[in-house]
Amino acid sequence: MLQAGIAIPLSLAFTLIPLQRRGMKDFSQLIEGYHRFRAGDWQQQHDRWEELSKGQSPKVMVISCSDSRVDPSQIFDVSPGEIFVVRNVAALVPPFETAAGQHGVSAALEFAVQFLGVVEVVVMGHGACGGCKAALTQDLHGNELGEGGFVANWIGMLDHVREPIAASQGTSGADAEKAMEYAAVQLSLDNLRTFPCVQVKEGSGALRLHGCHFSIEDGKLYILDESSGDFDPAN
Ligand SMILES: [Zn+2]
Questions:
Q1: 8-12, 55-59, 203-207, 212-216 — which is least confidently predicted?
Q2: Residue 48 sits in the same domain as residue 130
Q3: For ligand 1, a single-atom ion, which residues have Cβ within 5 Å?
């Protein structure tokens, strides 16, 4: 747990408020939900679950933020087995790296593209993203590991795309934050294209990449047009 006294951006600190104060569910209540699932969807779609027990063959991989408000399955209204999902702070894809280490996103991407054979990869950023906000303010930069340092290292991936935004729009305010969120989506798409398997498959037309941004404020999804850099409402 993060300890008191550590500099935490307000956006992140908000997520650390004790459960009771916000009426959120604890694990015992999640188990109640599990029993509802067993009595409901599990029974009603038993044939589907039986089929899924033999394997998965999703066509789409979605990379989303870990933020509790932006569940891709809910936003895209899909059923189990339909999307292969990776979630992390700010929905980021690191570049292809061969250095030693545990590369979680790279492993998931490799599995989805090379073994499952997904035909589309979607990077979904979102509004009010605490990770992107922290990247913009750099409030956590310099913190020790375990005290914000892991987050700082992770979102440090955005440092170079942050610079022009900070220079032109500052490091606070809705416009700068949205610009940071949009830039993060494009950076992740750029990093996806540093993976040889993505290069080959996108080049042959076997794989398509998409960027999008979900606005929590109005519940709308905006799709990135990479040729213009604009995010347009999904039709
Ligand atoms: Zn986020």
A1: 8-12
A2: no
A3: 65, 67, 129, 131
